[in-house]
Specification:
alpha/beta; 5-stranded parallel sheet; single chain; 11 helices
């Protein structure tokens, strides 16, 4: 598309002068000139030709002078519209005022067309830069909108209704929360019914942050759930999931996973910990116990791994509290981490609470510790209690 230039001058011979001098660029389709003879005509032409990008305006004109026209152009707030003022050499006062009021550049009469050509080229460079910035801004705004939708989708795929199994609320209490550090996160939790007696539950943390982590999170969650509902052991589930994820992993992404199956009748939990933070057991009597560290690697990191299972027993009133490292590694303004000790102090105060209260207590204490410091990682908590 040609650069459209509006020449505003009450001297009629300027039209012929410009079209003659720039005839090659006009023929090549690089420039297109339109003409007006005062400020009022110029405003009319700008309505007729909204794609005008350069205005060559005389200062001294009848009906509406160039300074008034410049003020009207400024009201349009179009950074890609450049105004070059033209006036007699002795009219430096008005030229200076025009420059102070936002004119891009100026030329003096009699016009040096070679110099004017250079000035127009400079203006075109600025216009192209502004257009590029506007394009990138539009892309960023579009990306922000996409991220907002992605955040809604991500939150929607996580279970949000508590209690999730009201028909078994006399046997089991579950609550969870995920707060992403960015628009979308890499943490996730899930729980699902396997059969009448067993409930599967998962908490996981994908390596990295942002959109790549969110995509890997969605794939991992879907794969683990689809495998878990078949009813196999947690170790078999993660062995199979690792085989698929490791084969398709991009940029060496992986996910730490704690996957367990709770038996509603017996209170036994069979579980597999693939590189995830060890959960805590809150005993009804007030004790806080931590499970052994995981001996198995993250899912998706190494192909061909055989994962190992273990079991634990929840008595009536006991809770299992799982979390991602966004909890213990949350940092305050002094670059201090929340840490395991503070988490254990929090848990010691809520051993008799229900799962929703446990989750909220952890979130409140972490937020109070972090203060105004920026959240550096996703914060996810999952609590399960045998009633």
């Amino acid at each position: 598309m040609p650069i459209k230039i509006l020449s505003v001058d009450d001297e009629m011979d300027l039209e012929l002068l410009l079209t003659q001098y720039f005839r090659r660029k006009i023929r090549k389709g690089e420039y297109e000139f339109v003409f007006a003879h005062n400020g009022l005509e110029a405003l009319t032409m700008m309505v007729k030709h909204p794609d005008i990008e350069i205005i060559l305006s005389d200062i001294n004109m009848p009906e509406m002078d160039g300074l008034t026209l410049l003020a009207k152009v400024n009201e349009m707030r179009n950074p890609a519209l450049k105004v070059i003022m033209v006036s007699a050499y002795g009219d430096m006062g008005n030229i200076r005022q025009a420059m102070n009021n936002g004119a891009f550049d100026f030329a003096t009469k009699p016009i040096d067309l070679d110099d004017l050509s250079v000035t127009i080229e400079k203006a075109i460079e600025q216009i192209e830069y502004v257009h590029q910035m506007q394009k990138e801004h539009s892309q960023l705004e579009s990306l922000k909108g996409d991220l907002a939708i992605a955040c809604e989708i991500q939150q929607a795929i996580l279970p949000r209704v508590f209690p999730p199994f009201p028909e078994d609320s006399d046997k089991l209490d579950i609550a969870a929360s995920m707060t992403p550090a960015k628009d979308v996160g890499g943490d996730f939790y899930d729980f699902f019914r396997i059969d009448d007696d067993r409930i599967g539950f998962v908490i996981a943390d994908v390596s990295g942050k942002g959109i790549p982590a969110a995509i890997f999170m969605a794939v991992s969650r879907t794969l683990i759930r689809a495998t878990g509902v078949r009813g196999g052991s947690p170790a078999d589930c993660l062995t199979y999931s690792n085989k698929l994820l490791a084969a398709e992993s991009v940029d060496c992404m992986f996910v730490t996973v704690f996957y367990g199956i709770f038996n509603l009748k017996t209170g036994e939990i069979s579980y597999c910990n693939a590189g995830h933070n060890p959960p805590y057991i809150l005993k009804r009597g007030g004790a806080v116990e931590v499970l052994p560290m995981s001996q198995d690697p993250m899912v998706g990191a190494i192909d061909g791994i055989e994962y190992h299972g273990a079991t634990l027993q929840l008595d009536h009133g006991d809770s299992l509290v799982m979390f991602t490292d966004g909890v213990t590694e949350a940092m305050n303004a002094q670059n201090e981490e929340f840490g395991e000790e503070r988490l254990e102090d929090t848990l010691a105060e809520v051993t008799m609470h229900n799962c929703q209260q446990i989750v909220e207590a952890i979130k409140v204490d972490v937020a109070a510790f972090v203060g105004d410091a920026e959240q550096s990682d996703d914060i996810t908590v999952l609590a399960l209690k045998r009633q």
